[in-house]
Amino acid sequence: MDGHAAFTLVLALAAGVLCQSVARHLRLPGIVILLLAGAALGPDGLGLVQPRALGEGFFAIVDIAVAVILFEGGLNLQISRLRREQSAIRHLVLSGAILTLGLASLTAAWILDWTWQQSVLFGSLVVVTGPTVVGPLVSQMRLRPRVATVLNAEGVLIDPVGAILALLVLEVVVAPERAAVGAADLVLRVGVGTAIGLLSGLMLGLLLRIRRLVPQGHENIFVLAMVLLVFVLADELVAQSGILAVTIAGVTVGNMRTPVDRDLREFKDQLTILLIGLLFVMLAADVRLADVVALGWPGLAVVGALVFAVRPLVVVLSTSGSDLSARERAFISWVAPRGIVAAAMASLVAAAMEKNGLDGGRELRALVFLTIVGTVLQAGLTAGLAARVLGVKLPKREGVAILGAQGLGFLLAEELRRGGVPVVILDSNPQTCRQAQEAGFTVVFGNALEERTLQRAQLECVETAIGITPNQTVNAVFVNRAHELFHVPKNYVAVQAIETGMAAELVQNEEAEIAFDAVHDIERWDVRLRHGDVEVGRFRFDPARLPETPSEDEPVRDPPPIGERLVMLSMQRGSQPMRPMSSDYQPAEGDVVAVALHIPDMDDALEALDARGFERLEDAETASQSAGSA
Of 393, 320, 337, which is closest to residue 146 (Cα–Cα)? Predict the structure, then answer.
């Protein structure tokens, strides 16, 4: 690799990361800024990024990067969710791809008067949507689960199908005599890619489950190396089957719940961001602006027809037998931004056309990039409004989901309800669930570590998740799944010890806070409540009640320890909503806290609170009434 090739690669890498950081701050679609940066740094701009300086290595980098990106997309697809919407997803990915190919080809031929070769190649290239664009959009808008599932699944699964279809169409265009065997080639690639993906995904998942087989800290690089190996081996066995193999492998590994599941997702997510930035900058630099401008109004008309006619018709026909409502189908019709796979395949197809002496490769690539820019801007700028108008957005997050209907969990639920906070309780104990229901709470009975139970609790609408059972590992798994599967923003975990384990890891990574004022023996408090040895009091913080700061000659006296004499359950500051107490709480004047007090230790508990500046509200109100009478 010569000096300019290395400079091109490094500059594109740095520019890609910088542009995505800027896009996140500005809350703009990252692809738009990446494409602008690529055009500015490319031959038509500053001339600093020269993709062709990489030679054949340019297309090898594109292939490898796309493989990693699609594997990461597969990791995030949950089979349990796919199964519920399988009809709509299957038809969008399969029949939808064929319909898009045909309608987009006719559109290009009619509006641009292109040859059938150019038109069909264009139709095959815009079959795909962009998971790297759809995913952030869906997450940002907080769509209803079924709509989000369909869009995410379509984006991930149609990319390998569309890529294989585009390469198959390219073969037919280059060698028309192979048209008769085209269908057989497609079936072979899909079958081999699926089989290799399933087998390699299962093997990877099993290897990661065997403790100490892969050295600690090497899991992520091990998976990355194996994914790339699967990609090239599948392609060597059957050409162009690798892209589907790595996608299926990602779905398989992502649903096996390996010990390194979270770390693997985080690593692949960061790597994907890096590679997307690199690819878009280089691919945009490889497109001549003059070719895009030369398309003129007819080019924009083709993009408009894809958005306003082709996509809605494809969705209506593909989902006619599904359970999706008319509003949901209308929104899915509106969101189909093209992304990195369309850009990468356009460059590969254009290069192949040039190599085989076919005209129109530059115009084809220009129209695909115009389609990417147009659909990304259309979806990124209007999808939020469309979601509100069509009613497919989730309501504003509010309320608290509590795992544990007994003991401190029940007391906390009562306090939050008293403060006007909606509460849903999850538990697998029929007796405690019945008691909570009789007390007027919304209760979900079942295993709260299973996704279907969490869905019944509607965690997608919940702001806070708290695990309050005697088993702190169960608490940690609950809040972790609430955060990962439903993006619950605030999470608390009740613990007895915080030295090691999953709970400690969540707290250390700032993904959860320790519930209540400190670590507590949850089981001991459950027993106390069953024996009627607990009373709940409310206290106000007054800094004037704190002991005066001792002089330099006087020893500092620590306040009496709290231990298991009391548990701070919740706090309210001014007119703000009541919230669960956490160990990070820093009191402010006027704060009101609800405290569970152990009755046999009442005097010591009150002394400990008094030493920390907390006065019981009943005492304060009595003193105020006495002063008024005087």
Answer: 393
Which pLDDT score, from 0 to 100, does residue 420 have?
A: 87
Tokens of 265: 């997702």
The two three-digit tokens of residue 442, written as one number: 């919304």
Tens-digit pLDDT profile for residues 611-627? 888 888 875 444 444 43
Supply the pTM of this predicted model: 0.73
Give the neighbor-by-neighbor strand order of the sheet with 464-467: 442-445, 423-427, 400-403, 464-467, 490-493, 513-514
Percent of the chain at pLDDT > 70 equals: 91
Tokens standing for residue 396: 């504003």
Radius of gyration of the chain measured on its C-alpha atoms: 30
For CA atoms 302, 308, 314, 317, the dihedral sign is negative
What's the pLDDT tens digit per position in 114-124? 888 889 999 98
By the 10 Å C-beta count (0-12 exposed, 13-18 middle, 19+ buried), 575 is classed as exposed
518 burial type by CB count under 10 A (0-12 exposed, 13-18 middle, 19+ buried): middle
State the pairing for strand pair 592-598/534-541.
Answer: antiparallel
Rounded to a whole number of angstroms, the distance between the first and last alpha carbons of the chain is 92
Cα 24–Cα 26–Cα 29 angle in degrees, nearest 5: 60
**Quick check: 324 and 148 in contact, CB under 8 A?**
no
Instruction: Say which amino acid occupies 388.
Output: R
d(CA 212, CA 219): 10
Q: Of the candidates 510, 403, 505, 414, which has an alpha carbon nearest to the alpha carbon of residue 462?
A: 403
The H or E element spanning position 619 is helix 617-629
HSE, CB side, 13 Å, CA atoms: give it for residue 331. Answer: 27
- Nearest-angstrom CA–CA distance, 403 and 410: 10
| H or E segment to which residue 354 belongs | helix 340-355
Query: Can you tell me the distance from the alpha carbon of 307 to that of 309, in angstroms, rounded to the nearest whole number?
Result: 6
Q: Where does residue 605 rank: exposed (0-12), middle (13-18), buried (19+ CB within 10 A)?
A: buried
- The per-residue pLDDT for 350 is 83
Q: What is the pLDDT of residues 447-472, one digit of tens each?
A: 888 878 888 888 888 889 999 988 88
In sequence order, what E strands does 253-370 have?
none
Cα angle 173-175-179, degrees, rounded to a multiple of 5: 80
According to DSSP, the β-strands at 592-598 and 566-572 are antiparallel
65-107 pLDDT, tens per residue?
Answer: 888 888 877 777 777 667 767 778 888 888 888 899 999 999 9
3-state secondary structure 179-229: HHHHHHHHHHHHHHHHHHHHHHHHHHHHHHHCCCCCCCCCHHHHHHHHHHH
Distance, CA of 54 to CA of 8 (rounded, Å) = 8
Tens-digit pLDDT profile for residues 301-320: 999 999 999 999 999 998 88
Q: 3-state DSSP call for residue 330?
A: helix
Going by C-alpha positions, the residue among 435, 300, 445 that lies closest to residue 378 is: 300
